[in-house]
């Protein structure tokens, strides 16, 4: 079985390389959260996620013996990869649907079904994005529970 730190290292390097070579310079991702729009550069976001993968690789490398569960570590890796997939596919969906909505608005012919569909898809992506961000704290929880059970096991 592979070490989780090695898998995070590979994922971080691949995501960082993706950020450098793939996205266009002017590409961005828009996140709507309670009527507030956050516009993030795709390159910066993927560089941050790649760096986050490298940070997790280092953390897992140095704290692997202190963690409570290997299963929690695998769940953390899967949620990290789902976060990357979520961000990556949202860029495609946003360009396809938002491009169509923008052209309809310029023709003064907005379709309510298109707007409703885009809003629902956007809510799904933002909800899963927030859930995957929260899941990144699984590492901290895994470490804390591991340290607590390790201390109580040593005291007995």
UniProtKB/TrEMBL annotation:
Source domain of life: Bacteria
Gene3D superfamilies, alphabetized: Cytochrome c oxidase-like, subunit I domain
Membrane-spanning parts: 43-62, 74-93, 124-149
Keyword vocabulary terms for this entry: Membrane, Transmembrane, Transmembrane helix
Protein name as catalogued: DUF4149 domain-containing protein
Taxonomic source organism: Sphingobacterium daejeonense
